[in-house]
Amino acid sequence: MIDYRDGLGDLVTSKGTISFQYGQRLPVTLVKKVVKSRLAEVRLATGGAAPTP
User: Fold this and answer.
1) HSE toward the beta carbon, residue 1, CA cutoff 13 A
2) Is 50 exposed, middle or buried (0-12, 13-18, 19+ CB in 10 A)?
3) Spatial contact of 2 and 9, defined as CB atoms under 8 Å apart
4) What is the pLDDT of residues 6-18, one digit of tens each?
5) What's the CA gap between 17 and 13, in Å, rounded?
């Protein structure tokens, strides 16, 4: 989450969690970046066993 602190703005975060406001559109670009980054982390940790998006 630290990598995306600038893009998160006013969104409340905790370890591994982003809280989006109800009734507002999700920031799709930000969500895609976070998911791709997390998948890459899992791939590295498992030796490439994680599925691709």
Assistant:
1) 11
2) middle
3) no
4) 667 677 677 777 7
5) 5
